[in-house]
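Hi, here's the filled form for the chain we discussed.

Project: internal
Contact: R.S.
Residues: 141
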Amino acid sequence: MLFITLLLSCSVYATELMLIAHPNNTNKLEQHSLIQLYLNKTSTFADGSAAVIFHSARDSEQHQQFCLSLLNLTASQYQSYWSRLIFTGAAARPHFVQNDEEMLKTVSNNKSAIGYISASTEPVNVRVIGYLHNGKWQAMP
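And the returned structure, exactly as it came back:
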């Protein structure tokens, strides 16, 4: 049983993620503000400009890892949370992209965008905000 638990805990944080924003977005984002954005508790950056969040595909390992690492929710719990927001009229449907290339293109073309990609992907034409590594948030200096 201990072996299975260790094996599962190793695979839980198998994917390292890089959080990205438009290159002209100079807002410093800490873990708390990211959580607020992704839980729709706020829709603006610290400077008051609009924030538009983007997710990897719902069934992707990246999306599951993001939900667990940053939000401490499973992807299913996160989807249920958003379903309630949408049903009550408190939010519109979240934005999803299919892969890292689409995420890079979307974020680099939208000044309000924020998203995440695999840490192994080259962050072209975007600003790296920070990393989710082994389930821990690390902001860029």
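Let me know if anything looks off before we file it.
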